[in-house]
Amino acid sequence: MSLDIDMSNYWMPFTANRAFKESPRMITSAQGINLFDPSGRRILDGSSGLFCVPAGHCRPEIATAVGEQLRKLDYTTPFQFSHPGGFELANKIASLTPPGLDRIFFANSGSESVDTALKIAFAYHRANGQPSRYRVVTRDLAYHGVNFGGLSVGGMMKNREGYGSLLPGVVHMRHTQTVKNSFTQGQPETGADLADDLLHAINLYGADSIAAVVVEPIVGSVGILVPPKGYLQRLRQIANQHGILLIFDEVITGFGRTGTPFAAETFDVRPDLMTMAKALTNGSMPMGAVAASTEIYDTITNAAAENAIEFFHGYTYSAHPVATAAALATLRIFEQEGLYERAAELVAPFQHAVSELRSLSLVTDIRGYGLLAGIDLATDERMGQRGYAVLRKLFEAGLMVRVTNDTIIMAPPFVSEVAEVEQMVDIVKAVVTQL
Ligand code: PMP
């Protein structure tokens, strides 16, 4: 069966729209780790959607929770009113975040979570009597979403160019991908000293002008850059010494990707603010959140007069009852099926399988950690050309992955069997070999 669809109106995001019309890649149903196209052909989901479906597709528990919620309370305003689910979910998330990161602010996406975290950081310094802190230190090659805050602190050139001056006061540190660390499995041994770029920014602009430093603990969208050993610790140390807040963007790493609920725990570094989204609802509903430290919350709230709104920020759909129900059902699945542990168990076979791809002549680097891997292919005539070709060929061969430029990104669902993960890597091997 093919789909006869008029494609003249939908402007697709981050997509080569004209090319898509020539060879549409449509998905019409999904189950577990499988996606199905209109003809019923099976495609393995090697990227858990966009890193957001670790528990597998179309979970009946989530569908039931969402259906029940829609019939009971579809919506209530989150401003000055609430519903019990929001509090229940915040408690649940706070039980998973590192100790002390226990105030949860709800948004609807990763991008909104990042912008929310930046606003909390600015609000904190103002409430703390340091309004001069307005700069944000970030990193080349970072991805923090597409809204103006996240875009401004992002470091992917193509996403930024063409949108004007963006936020003022953003300082980029170097990224941590170095030739020396090519084909490193796990955390690179060298590169912790790159965190001293934060010191450089401090020396250049003065600590009292810097509000926060924001990083993805593992850089995701650009192709999985794993932090060198000691790097995140060093950032934490410098930030502490200079009154700068540390923000971890855990939109990809949150909820088990590194084998523990958050990468902050895996790498044993506690940030002051942490963003999350994606896996929070197993991809079923848009939802994001920011976890803030008790100190940040107390400082902001205590600075406001009694009965006054403390933080002038929020979304019509913050803690949306239906998304909340989906998230609660998701986190119950994680617990009941031991998915954090299951993810941790899959790491070794997955990373082992991926590391075997190094024998392919087109593969120029492989980076991996947890259930994330980035496989770089030699660039053809134009950057991204080979990546796009491989994306289409993998889809034809029955595997969905994420591709950025000429890098294949794999992020299998946690419910995959070892043989299934190996099968995904085998498909990559066969397709890249034929290129
Ligand atoms: N931050 C990070 C680290 C991300 O990887 C992403 C999305 N890939 C975002 C923010 C933005 O999330 P969203 O697309 O849900 O807005």
Give start-end ranges of low-pLDDT stretches.
none
Radius of gyration equals 21 Å
CATH C-level class of the largest domain is: Alpha Beta
Secondary structure: helix percent: 25-40%
Taken as a percent bin, the fraction of beta residues is 15-25%
**Count of separate DSSP helical elements:** 15
- Major sheet description: 7 strands, mixed
CATH topology of the largest domain: Aspartate Aminotransferase, domain 2
CATH superfamily of the largest domain: Type I PLP-dependent aspartate aminotransferase-like (Major domain)
Counting structural domains, the number is: 2
What does the average pLDDT come to?
97
- Encode the helix/strand succession as letters: HEEEHHHEHEHHEHEHEHEEHHHEEHEEEH
Structural class computed from helices and strand pairing: alpha/beta
Q: Which cofactors or ions or other ligands sit in this model? A: 4'-deoxy-4'-aminopyridoxal-5'-phosphate
Shape: globular
Protein name: Beta-alanine--pyruvate aminotransferase
Keywords: Aminotransferase, Pyridoxal phosphate, Pyruvate, Transferase
Organism: Bremerella alba
Pfam family, one: Aminotran_3
Structural account:
- With 435 residues, this protein is an alpha/beta fold.
- The protein has two domains: 17-55 and 338-434, Alpha-Beta Complex (Aspartate Aminotransferase, domain 1), CATH 3.90.1150; 64-336, Aspartate Aminotransferase, domain 2 (3-Layer(aba) Sandwich), CATH 3.40.640.10.
- The protein is built from 15 helices and 15 strands.
- The protein has helices spanning 17-22, 48-51, 60-72, 84-96, 110-127, 148-153, 157-160, 197-205, 231-241, 263-266, 294-302, 321-336, 339-355, 385-396, 418-434; strands spanning 29-31, 34-36, 42-45, 103-107, 135-139, 170-173, 210-215, 245-249, 273-276, 288-292, 363-369, 372-377, 399-400, 402-404, 407-410.
- It has a seven-stranded mixed beta sheet, with helices on both faces. Strands 1-2-3-13 form a four-stranded mixed beta sheet.
- Strand 2 and strand 3 (42-45) form a beta hairpin.
- Helix 4 (84-96) packs parallel to helix 12.
- The mean pLDDT is 97.
- The chain binds 4'-deoxy-4'-aminopyridoxal-5'-phosphate.
- 4'-deoxy-4'-aminopyridoxal-5'-phosphate binds next to helix 5.
